[in-house]
């Protein structure tokens, strides 16, 4: 018992002395703080050390006092270890504690802090908390961007976990992962912005070439996939080509990694190339194969090389089959020879990881297409073998992507029954896990497969579900856009308020300092106070103006959006009545269609005016002048409103004299002005009347005229419309006015922005004429 007490006392004394030595280290010399404990340094230099022993030592170290930097390193190491354990969530608490402690260090450790935040974001991603993952990834990117603001600073390397890492590569990775989180939430424009930041970070020289090129290819592939989801195939193909160009350069540094990424990128690029450029796909797949064959001769059982060679052989065979070349048979034979070698080299434990089952399914499908092209429909066993290989993929995400790829290939080969057999369970899974974007694509493909088989009822149901999902996704994107606009608006108000408070604080501090300078400085201090008061009043007036604008905007949204939405609700009730009582007669259906078109036009016009007005108020509306012809602008606007005019039996007449000079203006701004003026004229014109759109030369430019034969406006009404609310910049509503008050102020603001002018003339009982004057080209 006595020996035990003495041993315990000696151990406590040793720990206290060790702590004192650690604390005394920085005071003895002005160099950076003392290094961590020897076992921690050994772990950094020896990755093969036992993780369990490190965890036990970390628990003991965390129970004792320690300096802030050492405690940060201990928490970081402990959290990373726990995140790789059987229960990864146990690493959340120490990683969060490390992140909070890292913010308070006197000597920041940006790379270590970013690694903590990155691992914490990965845990959030694993739990499908995509918003938390996105915010944490962006926080890590801000830490690195603040510590290393330019390319010269990012060129410096630091040791992180025993490995050298480039700052630019880590920064780009955090941006790209944040974009992945945006994409998982369905916010594709925000994801594209993050991907573009990652691309710029990878392209910022100087940096680690092999990592930079591989990451740059990865980011270009992410950009291409996201642009494809947005429906922009041309831009997606451009980014795929840039990814392949980066991989060609990477081969000089790391050939095998480049070959693997080459096959992965081609898998995503293949759906674009197969319908239009199958020969290009075939050439791209064959490009790295000579060097790959040479390496396989030296290492015939290397499973990674066999996986790359098999993937490229399958892609080459797919391109040959789509191009209908004689090389299809030899290409299929090469792929069929490589796959058994991959199966034997990989073994059961690596077949899933190396994609053996995906390659087997695709090769079997290509063999079925070759047989059907050569000698008629293939045996049913091909589809069963493809389905069996598809079902052997254990990971749901990989199995879903493979199913879509196989279904598209079955559709291309004309086997619609096999395509439908793959798409039906895929649609049920996406509906169960609530992935509307992917479900919409599956339903469109399933409807096409049903229609090609003659199952028109099933095709109609699938297409109806797909269209309903498309409407839901469109509405979601609109709501997200409105939410983003409101967020930016609120942020601008907060920045204005912060600026006001900052300015006021600076002025107060300046006044307090001047107060002690004596008689000579007193007058200067009083002048500063007066300046501060004027600045404060000006900022307060701007704040009141912004508040009034916000209130008017909310009033417009609440009042003017209610009527179209109520009309849509009534139309829904009417359609439900038709569904229960039977189809209506053509006349009633034509009335419903006209009402839907009119309501949609009103809603679209209101939203366009709101967006243009908000952009003009915030200064974000770019002015891009170009040379334009007046007759083309008037004809385009008249064609846009012809259906609405016919519905009201109104004639639209365009009168443009030949030989008019060209004008210089922003096309989008002029079209917005003419749409507002013609929309107002259609509201005012009586049934059976005529609206005239004309152009003529004026003293200071070219005039565009919109004339109606409505009831006209009195002098008092014209004077009211020429004025604007001083707080909101909007025109006041007249008692009989149905608009929002946005149209005419927007026309006037856009005219001033283009160095033009706008005016109204009207005669009661005869009609109103709007004059829009714009500068001539070359003036």
Automatic annotation (TrEMBL):
Residues 1-29 form the signal peptide. PROSITE patterns: HIS_KIN. Keywords: Kinase, Membrane, Phosphoprotein, Signal, Transferase, Transmembrane, Transmembrane helix, Two-component regulatory system. It catalyses: ATP + protein L-histidine = ADP + protein N-phospho-L-histidine. Its EC number is 2.7.13.3. SMART domains: HATPase_c (SM00387), TPR (SM00028). This is histidine kinase. The chain crosses the membrane at residues 514-533. GO terms for molecular function: phosphorelay sensor kinase activity. It is an enzyme of class 2 (transferase). Residues 556-778 form the Histidine kinase domain.
